[in-house]
Design goal:
The chain has 18 helices and 16 strands. The chain has 518 residues and is an alpha+beta fold. It folds into two domains: 4-310, Beta Barrel (Butyryl-CoA Dehydrogenase, subunit A, domain 2), CATH 2.40.110; 314-502, Butyryl-CoA Dehydrogenase, subunit A, domain 3, CATH 1.20.140.10. Strand 8 and strand 9 (211-218) form a beta hairpin. Helix 8 (313-350) packs antiparallel against helix 15, helix 9 packs antiparallel against helix 10 and helix 11 runs antiparallel to helix 15.
Length: 518
Amino acid sequence: MQNSIVLGLGKDIAIYNIGRQLNDINERKDIMALMTRDQYIESLRKLDLKVYMFGKLVENTVDHPIIRPSMNSVSMTYAFAEKPEYEDLMTATSNLTGEKVNRFTHLHQSTDDLRKKVKMLRLLGQNTAACFQRCVGMDAGNALFSTTYDTDKAYGTDYHQNFRKYWEFVQKNDLTVDGAMTDPKGDRGLSPSQQADKDLYLRIVERRPDGVVVKGAKVHQTGMVNSHEVLVMPTIAMRPEDKDWAIAFAVPTDAEGIFMIYGRQSCDTRKLEEGADIDVGNKNFGGHEALVIFDNVFVPNERIFLNGETDFAGELVERFAGYHRQSYGGCKVGVGDVLIGAAALAADYNGAAKASHIKDKLIEMTHLNETLYSCGIACSAEGYPTEAGNYQIDLLLANVCKQNVTRFPYEIARLAEDIAGGIMVTMPSEQDFRDPNLGPYIDKYLKGVASVSTENRMRILRLIENITLGTAAVGYRTESMHGAGSPQAQRIMIARQGNLGHKKELAKAIARIDESKK
C-alpha cells in the first residue's frame, strides 16, 4: 500500500495509512518537495497525537498556549525555505531524487553542505532565540545513511535500501522527523540486558515475520509533539547479549502505542496568563521536550534499519553524536547573538553603554560566541565522505566544539545577567504594569534613560531572563551541557581521537630522542 505502514498491538495488526495525513502534501507537484509554513501547520492538525500535560490529554496541540511557541519555531524552518534570499542556505538538491529539498532533510554531499548546515542553524537561532527542533532528525538521518551501508556490507542485510526508500519519503513530503536516541538508562552501571527492568532501554519484545514489536521509552525528546515521524536509535554501544536492544527504526508520531508526556520548563505557565506578552520574554517562539512512551509498538520490516547487529550500535551513536555536536556550533551561536544584542540594549537602556567594563563584557561574550561558531565551521570544513557517499564531520573537532558549548553559553549568560542588573528578576509583573493604579508608579520608578520607554526596558530584561533563566534556558543552558552527550562523553571521544601517540612521536623527533639508549 502506497504511503502505508502496518501497526498493531499483540497479534492484532492494524493498517495505518500515513497518506491520510499527507494527501494534500503529495498532490503539491509544483513546489518539488517543499512544504510551506502554513501547510506544515495544517499537516500537524491532521495527526492523531496522544500528548499529556498536567495529567490531562491535550485536545489541540497546535493551538495550546504552552506548545504553540515551540511549533512556531519549527515553522520557521519552512518559512525561511520559502524566502529567495535564503534559498542557498535553506534548501539543497537531493542525491536521492534530484529535486530541491529542505536542508533539514538533506544528506550532506560535501563539506560545503556541512558548512551551510551550521550557517543555517545560526540564522534560525538568530530569528527565534529558541530551539527550532529539526536538527536531531537531520543528524539522525545522516548517521543512519552511512551506518546502514556499513551494516549491510558486513552482514548482507537490506537496511540501507530500507533507509534510502524511507528518507526519500521524508524528503518528498518535507517531513519533520524527531530523532530519538536517549533511553531512561536506569542503573548506569549496568548494560541494557542487565537492568532489573528490561524496558529502561527501548527493546524488541516480539519478533514476527513481518516486523517487530518494541517497548520502552525515550527521554528529552526535543520537538516530538511538532514532528510527523520519529526515528529511533540505540543510545549506547552494545554487547552481543544486548541484541534485543540494538534496534533502529521509524514510525509516525501518532502510531498506535505511542504517547507523550510533555516536559516542564521554568516559567512555562506564564504562557497561560491572560494577555501574556512582556512576562514571557519571547512570546512567539520556544522549544519543548517530552517523555515518549512506546507501549508495544509494531514496526514493519521495511522501516527497520538495525535489528540485533550490536557491533554497529556504537558506530551509529558515535556518528549521530558527532553530527549533533557540530549542530551546536550553529544553533547555540544564533541564540547567543540574540542574547548579546539584548545585553547591549540593556546597557543602552540603563545608560551604562559607555562604561569600559560593559564594553569589555560585550567583547568577551562576542569572543566566546564566535569561538563556538569557529568550531562548528572547522569540523565541517574538515569533513570527509563516508563509504555510503554522504559527508561526515571531523569527529575530533566536533567533540571539541561541543565541549566548548558545555561551558561558553554559561559564561555568556552570566555576563548578560551582570549587565542587565538585578531588576531583571525582581521587577513587577506585566499585569501590575497594566494596572491603572499601579502602572504609573512602575512606569516612573523603573525608568532608565529618558529616551526609552519603561515598557521597552522591561521587554528586553524579560528576554534576557527568558534565555538565561526561563523557558529558553532549557535549550540555551542545560541542553548546552547535556544535549548531544554530557561533557565527559566528549572528553572520552577527544582522548580516543586525539592521537596522543603521534604527538609523542613528533616530540621525540624534535628532541632527537634515542630510545636505544638506556
